[in-house]
Design a protein that fits this description.
Strand order of the largest sheet: 3-4-6-5
Strand content: 15-25%
Structural class: alpha+beta
Helix content: 25-40%
CATH class: Alpha Beta
Shape: elongated
Number of helices: 3
Order of helices and strands: EEEEHEEHH
Number of strands: 6
Length: about 140
């Protein structure tokens, strides 16, 4: 295993900043199932990490605010029976979350005006709808 987990643009998370916790996985099974600690909980202290540049760290903290517990990002995996595969799944989830969080935002929207044809179609649709609703009214005596 490498010393770092690569993200994007040459940014990587050092494995020394990750902490692992293992426990028994929940779920269906028969006799003697899940006697090994196959559930994996991966923790990364994003708030105090030196792995990301300041701008990217602030962006990630803002975008992942709902998932953080005191600045720590927690990812769990328990879908596989083997602990090693769950470790890989947790790392893959961590990479996907952080990569999406540090990605630059969409370009700013340049406001445009609707075309004359679009305005005319909208007004025609409003007129048609108005007539339809007027026909539903009770006739006056």
């Amino acid at each position: 295993m490498a010393d770092e987990i690569p993200l994007r643009g040459g940014v990587a998370i050092p494995r020394s900043e990750l902490s692992w916790r293992f426990s028994r996985s929940s779920g269906p099974g028969g006799q003697s199932v899940n006697t090994a600690d196959s559930r994996v909980e991966l923790r990364w202290d994003l708030a105090s990490s030196g792995a990301l540049p300041r701008v990217l760290r602030e962006r990630a903290l803002e975008r992942l605010a709902g998932r953080l517990v005191d600045g720590v990002l927690i990812v769990t995996a328990q879908e596989h029976r083997e602990q090693l595969r769950n470790r890989r799944a947790a790392e893959a989830r961590l990479v996907a979350l952080v990569t999406a969080a540090i990605a630059p935002g969409p370009p700013a929207r340049r406001p445009t005006r609707p075309s004359r044809g679009a305005v005319q179609r909208r007004l025609d649709a409003k007129r048609t709808r108005s007539v339809t609703k007027q026909l539903r009214a009770r006739p006056e005596h």
